[in-house]
Amino acid sequence: MRLFVAIRFSPQVNAALLRAQNILRRQGSGNFTQPENLHLTLAFIGETNQLDAAIRAINTIKASSFTVKVSEMGHFGDLYWAGTGNNAALSALQKRVSRALEAEGFSLEKRTFRPHLTLCRRFRPYVDCDLRAAQAALNGAECRITRVSLMESRRIQGKLIYTERYGVNLA
Questions:
Q1: In the chain, fewer beta carbons within 10 Å around the N or the C end?
Q2: Would you say 164 and 150 are in contact if contact means Cβ atoms under 8 Å apart?
Q3: 2-169: CATH, from 3.90.1140.10, 3.60.10.10, 3.40.50.10860, 3.40.50.150
Q4: Please, where are the H alpha helices in 36-168?
């Protein structure tokens, strides 16, 4: 199974993300993230049969709930995203998750954490893309993060499906 650890957002933040995504849709084509799959990855585990070890790791995470504001737009090449900017509580949670997974023997990528929510992959703008309109649609959406989710990624009949396999609530 293909696993990752993520946080998910309130319906209000998801609505703002969908508004921004719809602005991108009017400006280009690509593989847009399905609304039910919107999330922010804290750690990508990848292919593993060690579900129990991942659950043990998640169970050790102790953190308080916190607020995240989604207020930025950007892209890594043709991957377009909405971002949270600097958030000390989010960064601390990501470090705790990574350390807990590594303590259970998982080997994680050593990239710098750049908190973002993928809105579209392989985006091809029709003309120059104006991210300011999509960023304005976010309108500084924010919500309280109260849960960390261990997610499984599967492709079923060509459609990417993310399913929570386990989760822990934050204090």
A1: C
A2: yes
A3: 3.90.1140.10
A4: 51-59, 88-103, 131-138
